[in-house]
Amino acid sequence: MKRFAVRPEPIENESFNGFLLRIGKLNCVFKHSEIVKYLDCEPTPAPGYFGWLEMPSKHIFSALERKLEKPLTKHRMRFKERAHLRWLYSKWRMIFDLRLGFPRICTACVSEQGILDWRWGLAVTAHCPEHECLLTSHCPKCDRELKWTSSLLIGCPHCGKSWNELDSCQPSEISTTERQLWDDMATASSDVDESLLQDICLAIVVAMRPFDLVCESVRSCPKMMEHSRYVARAYSLLESPSINAAWRKQCQEKRGQLNFLGQDFVEAPCNNFRSLLVKEWRGPSEQALPTKELPFAENAFSETTAYISQSRRDKALESDEQSNYRFQTNVISFAKILGLSEESAQDYFRWDVLKSHKNVKYSTSRRFDLREFREIIQKRPRPNESIEIFPDNTIFSRFPVTFGQLANDVILNRVDGGFSDTRGVKSLFVHPKILKKWLTDQLIRTDAQGLSMKRATKALNCSRQHIRKLVAANLLEWVGEHRFEPRVDNQSFCEYVMRSERLL
Q: I need a surface site. Which of 158, 209, 410, 487 has the fewest CB within 10 A?
């Protein structure tokens, strides 16, 4: 059986991939697949996407011990503990698996130390804290993509340029949060705050699609040459008020086609990001100093389609560099902007008032193009002598109806109503008599024989005795004759509520 001629031991903070490549480099075996096959094993693909992420299995370490002719038990335990850190995987954040399947390096570190740091292979790192430069996944000289090969520890496998021949790395300021993260991972336990990672992963996904309202989680990060740059932008979103101000201004430009719906819809990506954060961050919370010039031009936000899932892709939107995706919303995001319950938002879109993409009709994840509301609003102007109804109107807590139901009936012309030019879909205009008839009809559908005492007391938040007093004062009426408990007349109940809410 062949043995490796040169038999190194793992170095502190060296990744397992990097250790195998270093063995290959010292023994003139360059392809990662050849190194693993030399150990009578097969390369382990990275989870979710093409790539390589070898696991420190007992099988491969047994082969290593034979080829290196030395015990590696303590090293295997260290690699195994690192591979199973509890915070590497979580289904409760936007990036489930933090491990990357493609190489990223600091050329200065590789030139000086000749190893690959395991933390370079994490989705949440962007910089080398020692040299304060971005980690790169492409050659700084020829700009070609780096591959998993032993020559990665020497120089570019494409142009042959040695890393020690390159000019010093272009400096890039590392954020306070990322530096703290590096410090936490440097401890023996490598214990990292889960809520911190949750916010960082959210910021990364938002940085990838900064003008989209729909944020999609990913199981693993797709292969991207510019991954480090986007992650650095994500840290800026968390820490910098000026970057957030620049982002908000660019939202106003990029999402300008939604101006007819109001500022809340135009700036929804910024507001949504802030509301989803677990911790309180300076970037989205504080106002940028008015005396400081905001770096809008030099901080232009770019988008990548790598973070648009296949389930969301649509040929009708695959134009204009996929910018049309930024105008999509789903039921949950729409509900959050208008302050609706999910049930009310579902009611808003019933009967295909807007085209749902990907033929998903009833899920809360179905998507709609907000620009379609323009034609609806133009066709349904505010009626004369109408009153304005908002989603938080108390009638929706007193009646078995939702704001979404009323809006849906207005859009479908079942109710004569309309929208305003200033507030868009955030309110409705309906004549009081038409509203009264609609509410009465909804009551009849659910309680044709009148409201029971239980339903009436719950709706008015009062006692049965109070209901009887209202009937005695001719403010409510009983309906029909009942042998046991009387029921409240639907029409009188509707009129009483509307008068008490000053809608009549």
A: 158
